[in-house]
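hey all, quick one before standup. I had two proteins in the batch that finished overnight and I want to keep them in one place so we stop losing track of which output belongs to which input. First protein below, input sequence then C-alpha cells straight from the run.
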Amino acid sequence: MNKNQELAELLFPGGKTVEEIEKQYPKRNLKTGAEVTRFAPSPTGFMHLGNFFQALIDYQIAKRSGGVFYLRIEDTDRKREISGASSIIMSIMTGYGIIPDEYELKGGVTVGDYGPYYQSERNEIYRAYAKKLVAEGYAFPCFCRKTEGLEDIKEKREKKFSTQITNEDKDVCRNLTFEQIEANIKAGKKFAIRLKSKGDGKRKIKFKDYAKGEVEILENCIDAILLKDDLTPTYNFAHPIDDTLMGTTVVVRGEEWLPSYPLHDEIFNALGYKKPKYIHNPLIYTFNEKGNKIKLSKRKHPEADMRFFDKEGYVKDAVIEYLTNLANSNFENWRKNNPNADYFDFPFDGFKITANTPIFDMVKLNDISKEIISKMTAEQCYEHLLLWAKEFSTENVNYLIKEKDYVIKILNIDREKSKPRKDLYKWSMFFELFDYMFGKPTSYEIDDNEKSEFSKVLKAYKKYLNLNDKDTWFENVKKMSAELGYATDNAEFKKNPEKYKGNVAKVCEYIRIAITGRKNSPDLFEIMTLLGKERVLDILNDLI
C-alpha cells in the first residue's frame, strides 16, 4: 500500500469500493440512438421558467429517441433547501405532461433502478469516489477554515466562457505530509476534499457543444472542492459520478455553466469516465421598462415562477408551445402550416437548440393562448374555467356550478364559427372580460361631447328593441338610424358624409357601449339575447 492509498484509508476507513458501486449500476439496455436525459433541479425555491425550459428539452430528446427521461433532485445544499420544493417541482412537471420515467417521491415510491434519485441519499457513493481519487493521487484533504470558496465558482461562472478562472497559487494543503494530515485528523479538524489539478491554465481544450458549436476554452487549473467539510459533494463532483452511474447520455444545462466545463472535463478524466453530450442552452431574457434586455428574474418578474401560469389560468399547451418555439425557432412556421396538429407532432430537434438569446414576450404567449382557446368548444372552456376556479378562484365556484348553462352560453358567443373570437387568453380574465353579463357596466367608453347624442339614440332604441331574430333586430336599428339622421347606406355616407350624423355602425357602437360599457365586444345581438329584453331595457332606462 503506497502513501496515497494509506491516506485514502486514513480519510475514509472501510466502506464500499467504486467497483462494488459500479456493479449496482449496470449499463442501460437501450436501442441504438436512444438518449438518456435528466432534469436535476435543486429544491431551493420555486420552479423557474428557465429550469422548466430545460426540462422540456430533456423530455423531448429522450422521448423522441425512444430513451429515458429521469428526475434527480440535487438536494445537497441543505442551508438553501426549501421544504416542499421537490413536491412543487414534480407537480408542475406532471401537470404539463412532462412525466419522468424514473423518479423518487420523498418518503414514498421509487420508480427506476438507478436511484437513489435524491443526491442527499447518495453520500456513500461520493465518498467512495473521493477515496478512489485520493488513493490515485488526484485529490487531497484541505483543512483550511474556508472550504467553500471555490465550491462551484458561482461569482465567476457567468463570465464569458472564453475566460478561464485560475488559482493565483495552488492550495497550501496540497503539500501537507502524511504525518501532518494524520495529526490534523487526530486533533479533530474537519477537512474538505479538493481535486489535485494537473493543469497549468495555459493549454486550451476543445469540445462540441450542441447549442454553441465547437468551443475552445482554457483547461482547468484550480484545486476545486469535491467534498465540502461536511463531506457532502459539490455539483462539480456529483455531476460526473451521478450522470455516469445513472447512464445519462445528454446533459442540458444553462450557458452559465460553460466556464465550469474544463473542471468537469478534468474530473471525468480523473475518474476514467466518458463524458456525455452537452447542450448549454441560452438563458431566457425579457425587456425592462427602458427596453433593455435583462435576465428573467425571480425577484422582478412573476412569470419567472412556473406557478404564475397556473394562478393566472393559462392553457398549459400555450406555455409548452411558446417555449418550444424559443428552443426551435422553426416551430412557429410549422404551426402555421399545421394549425390543428398536436404540438408533439412537430419534429423537435434537441441538438439544434437556438444559440440566440430567447426573449420571453407575454404578448406572444397571450396570442398563442388566444389561438388555442378559440378552437375549444364552449363546454371545453367551461370545464377548464371551473377546474381553474376550484383552485384559484374558490369564491366563484358555486356560481359557475349553479349557472353552468348560462356561463356556457356566454363562452359560446362568437365561438364555433369560421372566424371565432380571440379575446380570451387566460381563465382569470373571464369575469372581468364579461363583467357586463353579470351586472351593469361601471364605466362607459363615451366622450363627453357625445353624451347628448348617446342619450337620444338610447331613448329611440327603447321603442325599436326587438330580440326575436338578428335580421329583424338589425332592420329595426337601420330604420331608427334613418329617423335620427344617420346613413343606412355606407356608399352614400362616404360620398356625402356632411349630410349625416354618422352611419349605422355609429348607432350600433352607441348601443354596444350602453350594454357592455365598451366600443368593442363580442356579437352584440347574442349578448342582448342572453341578457333578455327586460334586462336590456333596465340598463337603457338607468342610463337615460
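OK second protein, same deal, sequence then C-alpha cells:
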Amino acid sequence: MSGAPGDGRPEAERVSDPADVRWGARLASWGVDREALVVDGRSLSYAGLARAVDGAAEALDAHGLRAGDLVAVLAPPSAAGVALFHALLDRRIVLLPLNARLREPEQAEALARLRPTALIVGAGVDTGLAARLAEAGACSLIGFEADGPADPVPVFILRRPLDPSSPDASARLVRRADRARVGAALVLLTSGTSGRSKGVVLTRANLWASAEASMRVLPQARGDRWLLCLPLFHVGGLSILVRSVLGGTAVLLHERFDAEHVARELERGGVTQVSLVATMLARLLEVRGEASSPPSLRVVLLGGGPASAALLARAHAAGYPLAPTYGLTEAASQVATRAPTDPSPEDGDLAGGLRPLPGVELRVVDAQGRPVPVGEEGEIRVRGAIVMQGYLDEPEATAAALDGGWLATGDVGRLDRSGGLRVLDRRSDLIVSGGENVYPAEIESVLQAHPAVAEAGVVGRADEAFGARPVAFVVAREGVPIDLDALARFARERLAGYKAPVAYHVVEALPRTASGKLQRGLLVERLRAIDGAGDASGSGGSDDSGTC
C-alpha cells in the first residue's frame, strides 16, 4: 500500500509494507513538533509518546513476551494504555482487549476459550478478579501502571506476579503453538448480540489498509484532533489510534462517553473529528439543544448500526458534518462511508449513498449468493485488504464467513444506481410477518420521530397466524410522558399494517453493548418474560405496557 496521491505527505512518511514497519520508529518520525495525545488536559508530543512506547516495549521484552503471543488486556483508557497498545503493535504481540463491562463469567469464558499467553491488567482492576481470570485462561498474570505523571512522558512498570498468594500460577508463561496467526495484530471479540462471541483476527495489513483507505475518504491534516470516546476494546476506537499515527495527527482521549463532557470539548474548539454511534449522537444533541455544530468540527463519523431518519435530519439541520458509515469488526472498522462533502442521495435518504472505501468491493446478493438487481434487498458482502484473517480457532465459522475472499456480513442492504449503499438491518434481526420482511430498524426510525420517544427497540413475537409480529420497547424523553395509544396511531399512519407494532412497552433504558449496539436478544428475553407472566396487555414491573 502507499499513501494516496496528493495527500500532502512526503513519500518517506507513507506506509509501504506494514510487515516492514517498526511501529515505534513510525511514532518517533513525527518528532517533537506534533501533538500525539491529549488526556485530562495534558498534551504529549509524538516524540514523548514514542519514548513511552519504547519503555513499554522493553518491559514486554523483560517479561518474556514475544512476537506471535496472544496477550489479553483489561484496563480503562489512559495514556499508559495507549502506549501499551502501540508497544504491542511494535513488538508484533497480538492484542486481545477485554470488555470491562462484561460480567466476570463472560470474561472468564472468553479467556478459557481463546487461551492467551498472558493477561495484563491496569491499575484499579480488582486483584482477586484478575487472579480468577488468569486462572480461567491458564495464563500468566501481569499488572501494569504508569509510574509518575503522564506529562511529559509516562514511564511503564509491568509487575509479575500480581497476586503474591499464587506466585507460580501468576508467573508462568504458556505458549500456544497450535494456531496460525500470520501477521496478526488484534483478536477482537464480536459483540455477541446474536450468540456466543467469536475472536476476530485482524492482521497488521488489515489495520494499515483500513487506515489508509479511511484517510483517503476523510483526509487528516496537521493540527487535527480526533476526539476518541469509543471503547478501546472496540475496533472503532482502536482504528482511531492507528489512523492518527499514519497521519501524524492528535487523539483527544476520553475514558468513556459522557455527553456533557463531549459537548464542552466541542464547544471549547479544536476538535476536528469525532466518532460516535447513533445513541451517542442523540444524547449529544439533547445536551447541546438547538446549538449549531461547532465551527472547528469537520467530521462526525457515525457508525454502530443504522441511525433513525429523525436523528439524522436533526443533526443535519444543525449543521453537523455527518459521515454516515457502515462497518464491522470483521472488516477492520469502516467499509463504506458518505463523506460530509459528498452530495446527499437523490432520494433524500440521509442514511443512504454510502461509498465503499478505496480498494473495497461491495455487492448485495440473494440467498444463493447471486448479485441482486439495483434497488433490491439482499445480504451485503465485502471483499478487500480490510477483511479479517478469520475467527480464532474456529475454522468452520471462518469458512462460512469467507467465501472466495468475500465476507458474508449477515447484514441486509441495497445498492442504488450509482453504487451507493443503504444498510437496512441485520439479517438475524429480520422479522417475517405474513410472508413479508419487516426490518426492526425501519420501525425504530419511525417511532423515534415521535416527540415523546427518545429511543426505540423492536423485536418479533411469535404468532400462529402471521409467523411473527413486531413488538416495540420505547424510552421516553426526559420529562415527556408517552401516550401509547397516540404512539400507536402515529406508527400506523406511517407504516404498513404488517409493520406496525402490535404491542408497546415503556422502559427506562434499552440494553446496549459498550459500543452502543442494541442487544435485541435481551429484549427478546424480556418480552418472553412479560408474555410468560400474562402481562402483555397490562402494566408489569417497571414497564408501562400496552397492546394496541
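Flagging for whoever picks this up: The domain at 203-427 is CATH 3.40.50.12780 (Rossmann fold). The first strand starts at residue 35 and ends at 39.
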